């Protein structure tokens, strides 16, 4: 029966399938060629299937052997990854959760910088727009879209949400437009790029125009392009496809580089912001504390 197969038999099979040679597999595992041959024969007997074809000294996997090898290799690789935390100096892997827009536009470069400064600390990033996954207490650190209060997380403000229309200089130049000279009514008549709101508190162009006072005094403008994520809307603006709504803290790198510019003088503060959270009911590890300090110090808002 399959449940009686010794686990070591799968390790021997894996080595033999990778080496395609029983002698080399034996040297890798520090056992004899005869022992490898016996383990493989026992495994074949248990499974009722031939795993190798033997032609003199040459080996090849049978179709059953190939299927088994793929599954065994995947399983062993998973086990190796699972054991990795126990092989590091501290055994510590910091987990941080953030939304897709924060991860892509703001957090990624800062984690890269942290890795250079602290190469011995591993960081696992969970990117999700699910509120329950973001706020899960299995995370060490979180970045939440919030007003600053949460029952399970102590929150420190990273950046307030300030929203303003943005575009690439190429888009404006192609239409002979001057960014600061444009009014909200002018903006409403241009190529608007929007995104779908999966959170009732998010602000898209419809809500933005509503907060500054509808410049058209009637039906709100309809976006020319609408994407499923905020990231895609920003990327379309970078390509020069129109005007998107920029969250200033998230796109600061693009503004600093000149890839994007703000348009007009109207800005909306939503009352929300992006907050870095630490667990309220458990202590932060020293390594997670290092990352926490790095992220707070890394924002030049």
From TrEMBL:
Report the SUPFAM superfamilies cross-referenced here: Periplasmic binding protein-like II, Winged helix' DNA-binding domain
Q: Is Transmembrane a UniProt keyword of this protein?
A: no
The molecule here is called HTH-type transcriptional regulator TtuA
All copies of domain HTH lysR-type, residue ranges: 5-62
Q: Name one Pfam family in it.
A: HTH_1
A Gene Ontology molecular function term for this protein is: sequence-specific DNA binding
Alphabetically ordered keywords of this record: DNA-binding, Transcription, Transcription regulation
Query: Which family does the record assign?
Result: Belongs to the LysR transcriptional regulatory family.
Source organism: Rhizobium jaguaris
Q: List the PROSITE patterns hit by this protein, alphabetically.
A: HTH_LYSR
Q: Which Gene3D superfamilies match?
A: Periplasmic binding protein-like II, Winged helix-like DNA-binding domain superfamily/Winged helix DNA-binding domain
State the Gene Ontology BP annotations: DNA-templated transcription
Described function: Transcriptional regulator of the ttuABCDE tartrate utilization operon.
Q: Which InterPro entries does the record cross-reference, listed alphabetically? A: LysR-type_TF_proteobact-type (IPR058163), LysR_HTH_N (IPR000847), LysR_subst-bd (IPR005119), WH-like_DNA-bd_sf (IPR036388), WH_DNA-bd_sf (IPR036390)
